[in-house]
Amino acid sequence: VQLVESGGGLVQPGGSLRLSCKASEGISLVYVMGWYRQVPDNGGRELVATITTTDVIQYGDFVNGRFIISRDGAKHTVNLEMNNLEPGETSVYYCQCRDGREYWGQGTQVNVSS
Asked: Fewer CB under 10 Å: which end of the chain, C or N?
């Protein structure tokens, strides 16, 4: 299974950006798919948002209603609409899929700067 990410780039503070991630064929019928981002201080990754095939959604604590995750099951695609972005959210955003196995995308850079 391969994950192909798109939609990163440069946005001004307070602006919006949409990320998309498409999983290739071979994924199971039941899975969790979503986004994590790199934490600058320790190099780890923190949860941004995930969604399951039964539409159970989880957001990171910092989201505070600003982001919306959605999916297109037929296309194995997950979209993340990010609004009111802050400079501290500049990071590499990674798509992840779990169906008993774990897969990661290559990452897409998001820069929030004026």
From this structure: C
CA–CA separation, 40 and 27 (whole Å): 31
* Residue 74 dihedral angles phi and psi, to the nearest 5°: -65, -30
Report percent pLDDT > 90 for the chain.
84
Q: How far is CA 35 from CA 18, 44, 60, in A?
A: 12, 13, 10
Of 91, 70, 94, residue with least CA distance to 81: 70
Rounded to the nearest angstrom, the gap between the alpha carbon of residue 8 and the centroid of all alpha carbons in its chain is: 10
Residue scoring higher pLDDT (47 or 73): 47
C-alpha to C-alpha distance for 9 and 11, rounded to whole angstroms: 7
103 bridge partner residues: 97
